[in-house]
Design goal:
Mean pLDDT: 83
Low-confidence stretches: 1-48, 470-486, 650-655
Shape: globular
Number of helices: 4
Structural class: mainly beta
């Protein structure tokens, strides 16, 4: 489950050995940790910053259990408060792809209104850990131009459990039924912001309050240690209506989202292993008052993702892995404006459709020349439609270990189909390309983790609106019109770059009961793409991003206090009173968030949070010389989570 505006996610604790988490209080410390039994893994050469546990997400000040909100405190990420989506190293939100158990999630975000931030659709407690690859990700994860977020669900759940929750935004509950060789988990969640909006109204005037109902289930079957079958299914329905701030038109939204994921893993006795998976995503959104009063907009997306891979350890120092996959997609939209505001001669009814597809294969060889050195050489090939284009992407990664210090470097090429809004205008657009170069080092010892990395990204084949007679057009003789204006077209001639430095400090041993996490990102991003006619900094990119997260445990009060302070330099916007394009900046962003977790008993957890407690009016750009503001400057939340039955553990949810 997940809470749309805020809230602590429910727990889904299990692992290969232990499925229950115990909370114990001592005179000098407080424990609230998820027990996960794992074998020790060699750190990857790509830019993975931190294994974030579900409990860390739940107790992080202001995150309220929202996966993407918590990830925005890691280096390389950039705040986009008006949408809530994840941006990484100068790329837009569409360049970050989410995978669950190796299978693609077409739409991982909840519905968003006008300047209303989204949230993750699924509970963070269904995962054994969260690990963001901000650069140089493995080529197994296709169609991810900037970053990949691979999430792995837990393999086993061996106890029965049941939990319920009640919060200021809704209610929910779920449970798990375990049997000898598997388990079945279910969860239901309902949110309604009617009461909250009456008590704490924001800038948006709602006619119908935000409502979301979601249900999820996961089935696991493990007949023996060598075989594992998983099936996960989730559906949510969201609807609301509000009056637009700029023209007071009624904006109404209804959204349906369905996701099905099934995987099978088998380990053979001769060091071979097999993985096969299939995922289906369906998303439909209907909007009334999208542009003007009485109009309607429909958007529908579908995707089938099929994937299989095999791997084998040839020797103690050499391992190979390879696989094939396909992404089969369909995108349709319809815009209709035949209301009272239009005459019959000027009415509009436009339907468009596109069927993109990716057929890919990948192979990776891992070699350990000696104990302190690890190298990876990968190759990915893709055939994309409707452009009928063949991509070849290499990747090389190297790690050198010296006691607690690791030095790493990666270089690789990544491709991604253009956004649907561009493909539906011009189906012959080429896949976008990003060449990435990363060099860094990290130190981990005694509860301390420090990391630094420098990076450079080069973009080519970005969609660009160009004049029809432009000689730079990739398709000067036959290009589909991007707009209703005959003088404009869309071509794959855009380009750009992004470069910067990421720093990360995490220390759990400095003081008793105290932990801090500090991240800093310096980024310079320039692009000539979409409607930008010059090489400029995109509207979403910021130069400086800083996030400080602190947590302090109070054993006598059975509480954990979390504070999160985020700062970002001003985002660029176009000021018509100054020369050039994207030539000015709004004021810097700053938000101080507070979270308090109280444990009155072994079966009850109370969590309260408040975002932007200083009530700063953060700007995310300017339109017509007016600041773009979030729908609300701050958010308050309180939730109570209760474990039912005899199990006394941090075990209030299903998974």
């Amino acid at each position: 489950m997940c809470f749309i505006p805020g809230g602590i996610a429910q727990n889904q604790n299990n692992s290969a050995k232990v499925d229950t988490v115990s909370i114990k209080f001592f005179t000098d410390s407080i424990g609230l940790e998820e027990v996960v039994v794992k074998t020790k893994k060699t750190p990857s050469a790509n830019s993975r910053w931190s294994d974030i546990s579900p409990v860390e997400l739940a107790t992080q000040g202001g995150a309220n259990g929202n996966l993407y909100k918590a990830l925005q405190t890691l280096p390389g990420t950039q705040v986009q408060g008006e949408s809530g989506k994840l941006l990484v190293r100068g790329g837009d939100s569409d360049e970050v792809q989410t995978y669950i158990d190796g299978m693609h999630v077409l739409n991982p975000y909840t519905a968003a209104g006008i300047n209303t931030p989204v949230r993750a659709r699924y509970s963070t407690f269904m995962f054994s850990g969260i690990n963001l690859a901000t650069g140089g990700a493995p080529l197994e994860y296709g169609d991810a131009l900037s970053a990949a977020l691979p999430l792995d669900t837990k393999d086993k759940s061996v106890i029965n459990k049941l939990g319920i929750n009640l919060s200021s935004v809704g209610l929910g509950g779920g449970g798990t039924k375990a049997f000898s060789k598997g388990s079945l988990s279910t969860n239901f969640d309902y949110q309604n912001l009617d009461i909250y909006d009456r008590l704490y109204p924001g800038r948006v005037e709602f006619e119908k309050p935000y409502r979301m109902a979601s249900g999820a289930a996961q089935f696991r079957y493990h007949p023996d240690e060598a075989n594992l079958f998983k099936l996960y299914v989730e559906y949510d329905r969201t609807d609301f209506s509000n009056y637009a701030m700029e023209d007071n038109r009624l904006f109404s939204l209804g959204e349906n989202n369905f996701y099905l994921n099934t995987t099978y893993t088998k380990r053979f006795s001769n060091d071979w292993s097999l993985f096969a998976g299939a995922a289906y995503s369906y998303y439909r959104q209907n909007v009334g008052g999208a542009v003007v009063a009485d109009d309607s907009w429909m958007e529908r997306q579908q995707e089938v993702h099929l994937k299989t891979k095999i791997s084998k350890r040839i020797s103690p120092v050499f391992r190979v892995e390879g696989g094939v996959e396909s992404f089969l997609r369909q995108y349709d939209n319809n815009y209709e404006n035949v209301g009272k505001a239009t005459t019959e001669s000027s009415s509009v009814n436009l339907t468009r459709s596109v069927h993109p597809a990716i057929y890919g294969g990948f192979v990776t060889s891992t070699f350990y020349p000696f104990q302190q050195l690890k190298t990876e050489l990968s190759l990915r090939t893709e055939y994309t439609r409707p452009s009928d284009h063949l991509n070849i992407s290499p990747r090389f990664a190297i790690n050198y270990y010296w006691d607690d210090l690791m030095l790493s470097a990666t270089l690789g090429r990544y491709t991604q189909l253009p956004q649907n809004e561009y493909l539906i205008q011009s189906s012959r657009l080429l896949p976008q390309v990003c060449d990435q170069y990363n060099i860094g080092g990290q130190y981990k010892s005694g509860g301390r983790f420090y990391k630094a990395e420098i990076y450079y990204k080069k973009y080519t084949h970005l969609p660009l609106i160009t004049p029809m007679d432009s000689e730079s057009s990739v398709y000067p003789d036959n290009v589909e019109s991007y707009s209703t204006e005959d003088s404009e077209s869309l071509a794959s001639t855009g380009y750009g770059y992004s470069k910067g430095v990421d720093l990360f400090f995490n220390d759990r041993s400095l003081l008793t009961n105290f932990e801090y996490q500090l991240s800093y990102t310096y980024n310079i991003s320039k692009r000539k793409y979409a409607g930008y006619t010059e090489l400029v900094t995109p509207q979403y990119a910021t130069r400086h991003n800083i996030a400080l997260v602190v947590k302090y445990s109070l054993p006598r009060l059975r509480s954990i206090i979390g504070l999160t302070d985020q700062f970002a330099s001003g985002r660029p916007y176009h000021n018509p009173n100054l020369p050039g394009v994207m030539n000015d900046e709004v004021k810097p962003y700053n938000s101080l968030d507070l979270g308090v977790t109280f444990l009155p008993s072994r079966k009850v957890i109370i969590h309260a949070s408040a975002t932007n407690i200083l009530c700063r009016k953060n700007e995310f750009g300017r339109t017509n010389d007016k600041p773009v503001l979030a729908s609300s400057d701050h958010f308050f939340y309180i939730g109570v989570f209760v474990t039912l039955g005899k199990k006394a553990a941090y075990d209030v949810s299903n998974f």
